[in-house]
Amino acid sequence: MAYKRIFGIVLDSVGIGAAPDAEKYGDVGSDTLGHIGAAFAGDWSLPNLQRLGLGNIRTDNPIPGVSPIAEPMGYFGRMQENSAGKDSMDGHWEMMGLPVETELATYPEGFPDDLITKLAEFSKHPILVNKPYSGTDVIRDYGDEAVAQKALIVYTSGDSVLQIAAHESVIPVEELYRICEYARSLVNEAPNLIGRVIARPFIGLDAESYTRTSNRHDFTLKPTGVTDLNRLTDAGVKVIGIGKINDIFSGEGITEGYHTESNMDGMDHVDQALEQAFTGFCFTNLVDFDAMYGHRRDPIGMGNALMAFDQRLGHVLDALKPDDLLIMTADHGNDPGFKGTDHTRELVPLLAYSPSMQHGETLDLRTTFSDFGQTILENFNVPAGPFGKSFLTAINQEN
């Protein structure tokens, strides 16, 4: 059957075990869901994800507290990333048929002097830090100095990102955005080809109270080719982007885009989309798992956030119509029980469900994230892109 509406939800950073090429990234042993379950000693509950088949994805090494069940409602499997990086942009682009085949620039020693000089001259603000740093630690350690000097905090991570933090009372959000837009113009070509420039506004009175705000904005490299979102909209299919989807694709291939302030705000937008009578694809990213807990290496916080999502998922399942399809996955790992503070190279879970399904079965290991986008294209009778293989026929068996 063809589905009228497809709802795609990306649980940002919720990986399900080290990928076969994890050694290349220093991520052997990473396991986001496994380590969260271990932190709870198995004493946590994801009943809606479990009944869709989350626990059935890997029966050889079960997720603590999320056991396999006899008759999952949904189809379940894993996907393996082919892109050269493990950033959100890489993962999302590959999902939509555009694997990132060339490694983007990273800066373990900080950004080059000429780039920092240009930023300082354009912004007319001093630049602090310029090295890899945890986003929460950097405002704690340098926030007072940034406020006193009216300075920008420029830092990076293991990913291809240039992040700029500033106190909202010193450098207003719109000014920070303008500076980030300029920074974006500097890093669109090799050797400084960077995936994302991220504005990181923060507030607070001192080092103990500095907090990043929801005014974060990602200035992403524009897609370097046609994505499945372009293919859909060019064919007249409506595409709704919720969360940082609009930023990741620079607005390209998106009919309607909605900024969100949290996972729960994102789910509010999903609920609103469920109430709309439309034909098309609603694509949502829930970033709190990554930004609030993964990078901060907080397995309990990340587990609690997953349980809160699972409760909201129950409403989604109740609201789905027989001709709706829900697909859930992740864009990479960010194991809160692992070393460092960066993303982890992991396989990601894949869950597909429609009320029209009689039962679920395994989708096994999909060898590229692009299978997600190909499935959506086939459903809406849009010509396939060059990467990936649709699993539409597999989930329609006996349905």
UniProtKB/TrEMBL annotation:
It is found in: Cytoplasm. It catalyses: 2-deoxy-alpha-D-ribose 1-phosphate = 2-deoxy-D-ribose 5-phosphate; alpha-D-ribose 1-phosphate = D-ribose 5-phosphate. One of its GO terms (molecular function) is magnesium ion binding. Binds 2 manganese ions. This is Phosphopentomutase. One of its GO terms (biological process) is 5-phosphoribose 1-diphosphate biosynthetic process. Its EC number is 5.4.2.7. Pfam families: Metalloenzyme.
